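Inputs:
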Amino acid sequence: MGKYLLRRLNLFVATSLVLAGVLFYTTGLFPVDRITALSGIVSPSPAQVEQVTELYALNKNTPLQFSAFLQQRLSGDLGISITSQQSVSQELMARLPATLELANVAALLALVFGVPIGILASLTQHRLTQHAIMAMTLTGYSIPVFWLGLTLSLWFGVHLGWLPISGQINLLYEIEPVTGFILFDTWVSDSEYRMAAFLDALQHMILPSITLAVLPFTVVVRITRSAMLNIMNQTFIRAAEARGLSTAKIVLRHALPNALIPVLKHLGIMLGPFASYSIIVEVIFSWPGVGSWLVSGIYQRDYTVIQGGILVVALLIMLSSILIEIVHTATNPISRKELYASN
Amino acid sequence: MSQFSIRLLCFTFGLLLIACGQQKVPSGLVYCSEGNPETFNPQLVTSGTTIDATSHQIYSRLVDYDAQTGQIVPALASDWQMAADGLSYRFNLRSDVRFHHSPHFIPTRVFNADDVLFSFNRVIQENHPYHFVSRTGYPFFQSIGLDKLVRQIEKVNDYQVIFHLNHADASFLANLATDFAIIQSQEYANQLWKQKTPERIDSDAIGTGPYQLAKYVKNDHIRYRRHEFYWGPAPKTDVLVFDITPRSSRRLAKLITGDCDVSALPKAGELPVINEHAELRLEQQAGLNVAYWAFNTQKPPLDDVRVRRALSHAVDRQNILRAVYQDTAVEATGILPPASWAYQPNDSLSDYNPAKAEALLKEAGIKDLAIDLWAMPVARTYNPNALKTAELIQADLANIGVHVNIVSYDWSVFTQKLNQSDYDSVLIGWNADNSDPDNFFTPTLSCDSVISGSNRSKWCHPDFDQILRLATATMDRSERTELYQQAEAILAEDVPLISLAHAKRLALKRTDVTETRVTPFGGISFADLKPMKVLR
């Protein structure tokens, strides 16, 4: 197992290096001065020029420059934003929790609703239910997320006026950011409007999280269904049936754990599209996360913000997909066997 | 089992939705504003976004305008006298005005003459330690030449100051009442100077206004809290929030869903939506502003007056009014809007006549003319959609064989490049800062304003300047009106710019907010506004 983890870590480091290499190469391609592209200082004084040249080893050869670049970025120095002149890493840290919160709530929604519906679709003998569920997931899968987001906000926000459609919370609530996770922060805040603020934050969460959850939800339903169909035909299930176990017990104890393994694997594959969907959703609902920050950075030609955003989003995707793979391997007896079999 | 869990989930989720029905919100007001302020000191800018966010919320002035009557009324100065020769103004100051407290600054004294001296000397004296703390200069004061006008500011005692002028100026008091002429704290400035962080005076603002700055998150929001010791009538709400929302459609959506109470600068095309929503109301007032198309008169071929005249005949203003403003504006006949007291209807301005335009171009010997037209990317009060205006002009000029190339950048980049670059022409405008007619001429078309950069035509006309000087040297309104009409005639003759329209000032608000003040000029003020809702 230790050897396997080491290999995964190795993979993570190697991919990160390639990513850093690409970013390093692009800093030279931005239509601004190299010093500005690296540090974000717009019109640097001679002292600043010297300092930045020193930090990024700009007067040395390319490999040394790359290693200096890596050192800076690894120490958390992403430069300062060209438009706001504030530290990119600080801005990023302020925005990351909002993104993670939205993504987690959406993933949770997808799993909590997707797995039971998938099981239902596989078990039911009722053809209408089967077809309805399949039609629903296929529709959900084919709807473009930007259209869905706009339609939901038009209908529930503008026409019906039920739900707020932008931001994390009504700005009148003054919530001290402790963790940056708005639901948590409002819950633990000591304001007299604590409960109201929490519910308001929850309301703001509904539309964006549903919009973001639709795609993973449909995938979870379909994968769960096909995996369940497959497993329910296996001999060990028939044996369990023969032993007289109740359907519930068969499904929950014997079939579901096996069916969830491919679901997990597909979740890992979906991380990339999920991240780009989350950027679109953040922009549509003015969600103050990394995605909307990155997009506004692109509009304002804020090269340090673009680099920082790409670096962090890509690292997050890589890290979580490797984590998912590790969990997948650890829980899956078949691939666990592979662990010990060769090299 | 699985059905049961689904039911359970639906039930809990439904419960949550029901729980969201009614809730208490803190007393406060949310204003959807259109952009980030560049700074928190209005002395340093002319941009309306910054003025809105600072001038009437954080600061006070020596004298103010009454929004209804347009008369100058006392503010930090309780009364004033002008000397008979018009060369000095004596102000008696209030003695009960307190500055904001903040975590960085606790005022030990009330407002007095030292603060007035600091605030104005900073602007007019180049050797003042704080003069160059501002990197952008003081564009409004430079364009009206305040440094040349004011000889000295004398402190008589703690609560009396005298402004000594070099020459009489009828617009002097009006200029002191503009949004730019705010009062900062000298004590705060001294403290920051000792801490070697003087630039914080313009970002961590301390003033005497009804609200004090609590928090600014760029691209997101500005939060203000009520100033407990405000010298005027106490502001009606505890909290004021500016929700920074650059997109107009999103501001409208936030207004409908109740995330905002008041919203800035609606687009004309969005106005029909208001009729569908009973809870929204549109406030409008004839504005003191003008949208114009300025020519760079220093660059050939636009330095030739015949070319400029030709272009002025080629533009169909009525069409622009219809398509861009959709009846929220009146056609301009000169640079002064009908709401100004010096306005007189005036038909000397060129009519729409493409044939005449072509003839004039032929006379000037110009063929295959191609010009750049810079258009703002954002909505301003005076022009809600400059890009669309530019496209209409492009089509009009194509009729007379002139090729127009539209240039646009993001707003901050746009203003920056405009100040540096050698453009041909630009679609821009002017929003008056006070009700004095001089405000339409001196800051935008005088020779001084060529240097400060607010003269977008780069046009310097000695006779014109002379008329403006004469007009401010007298106090007689009919005489001044006469002079401003002469100035208008020179503009119509020399065409440094083509006035397009005077837009109405619009603000959208929810009906549960009490009466707002949409003033015909200057920045927005929230001190009197009160949302009535407690339950939503």
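The radius of gyration of chain B is 25 Å. Flag for discussion at group meeting.
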